[in-house]
Specification:
CATH architecture: Beta Barrel
CATH topology: Lipocalin
Shape: elongated
Distance between the termini: 22 Å
Number of strands: 19
Strand content: over 45%
Structural class: mainly beta
Largest sheet: 12 strands, antiparallel, barrel
Radius of gyration: 22 Å
Mean pLDDT: 88
Strand order of the largest sheet: 1-3-4-6-7-10-11-14-15-16-17-19
């Protein structure tokens, strides 16, 4: 049972730490307000647990609604994002069932396309070029609490977390764009030039907003060595737009929106006969809503979500826990945004923007707990 307990104390927090959003439907890199405590092995007051989680995905499949735009692959005009993120996290026990959680993502992402670098036409062949962003993302700080005493509730428990997402990541990261058609303001002449301007919203390091987060996560022992687990969070971003220019043609999409974000997962974990090894299997959903809970849903965003199947493996030895999982997308949808609807109503022409999604995400993490207390110490304090 001890290995399973470490799964809930270590692996669930890594889910919260992940930068969700496998592609242009971008949910920022962030750490979670969640879980580093656990049934029977809660963090003692002033005890620390630290973690690191690496994630990679390649997004390239374009969707409008839930229909894939296969012509983009045939014509090789798809946008390709390669995302690499390292999420760093730390948790400290405040009481036997309450803890402080801190996290900070560090990422490097590159994005290649035709349309951002002059595009293709009958008079201009164009070329695929790449833009990049690198640096820290939006940090998170929060407090989470097990609803029941984790020392005595070893078969099931529920944790509630609240926190803040802070705008520490650059939301106006820039790079060079090539063969951009520029009009001279005096003569009106058009020439192709290299310009330095903001990268696409999907690879910005942050969103520029202060967000309010709510998270729930828990587990239930269904049978000896078999557990059900769940995790969900929602981040509300009240800010409307962040001032970052998109250079899109529609007047209501000229700035980036500061969108809400959400994710949830549900699954099962089974302890293997090999001591310390656990296998998990579940499903997850992650995305960006069309409209925010608080404030106006202004500016450009790509709302939508992805549903994935998520196999995983976890190994615990001593104070260290390592895990690997690989969510595989089974359903992807780019929903009609507020600005899509406004333009459609004004022109009478159906409009639904597209977004590029990944087929899978690779995630590997490790956590280490300092000065792990003995079970008897927890029970007697």
């Amino acid at each position: 049972m001890r290995a399973a307990h470490y799964f809930f104390t270590s692996v669930l927090i890594l889910f919260a730490n992940e930068s969700i959003g496998q592609g242009c439907v971008a949910v920022r890199g962030f750490g979670g307000c969640g879980v580093a405590g656990g049934s029977g092995l809660a963090l003692a007051p002033k005890q620390w647990q630290v973690g690191a989680n690496y994630r990679y995905f390649k997004s390239f499949r374009h969707f409008k609604g839930d229909e894939e735009q296969y012509d983009r692959l045939v014509k090789q005009t798809q946008v390709i994002n390669h995302s690499n993120t390292l999420d760093l996290s730390a948790s400290m026990g405040l009481t036997l069932n309450t803890q402080l959680n801190l996290s900070l993502p560090v990422s490097y992402t590159d994005r290649s396309s035709y349309y951002e670098h002059g595009g293709q036409s009958t008079t201009f062949a164009g070329a695929r070029k790449t833009s990049t962003s690198a640096g820290i993302g939006d940090a998170r700080v929060g407090v989470s609490r097990w609803l029941w005493n984790p020392a005595s509730h070893t078969n099931s428990n529920l944790m509630v977390g609240v926190g803040l997402k802070l705008p520490t990541g650059n939301w106006n990261a820039k790079d060079s764009f090539y063969n951009v058609l520029v009009t001279d303001p005096v003569s009106g002449a058009k020439t192709r030039q290299t310009v330095y301007r903001p990268v696409d919203q999907s690879i910005q390091l942050g969103d520029g907003g202060v967000g309010l987060s709510l998270e729930l996560q828990g587990f239930w022992e269904m049978a000896d060595g078999l557990y059900a687990y769940g995790n969900a969070f929602y981040i509300s971003n009240p800010r409307g737009v962040n001032g970052t220019l998109t250079y899109r043609s529609a007047s209501n999409e000229y700035m980036c929106s500061v969108a809400d974000q959400y994710a949830a997962r549900l699954g099962f974990l089974s302890q293997s006969k090999l001591h310390g090894l656990s296998i998990s299997w579940g499903g997850r959903i992650e995305g960006v809503p069309v409209k925010d809970l608080i404030g106006e849903s202004l500016g450009f965003r790509r709302p939508g979500y992805v549903v994935s199947l998520e196999p995983g493996v976890t190994y615990m030895k001593g104070k260290t826990t390592v895990n690997f999982n690989a969510p595989m997308a089974v359903y992807r949808i780019r929903k009609q945004s507020v600005t899509d609807k406004e333009i459609q109503d004004a022109t009478g022409v159906p409009r639904n923007g597209d977004a590029a999604f990944a087929d899978y995400l690779i995630s590997a993490g490790v956590t280490y707990r300092f000065n792990a207390p003995k079970p008897k110490d927890i029970l007697t304090k």
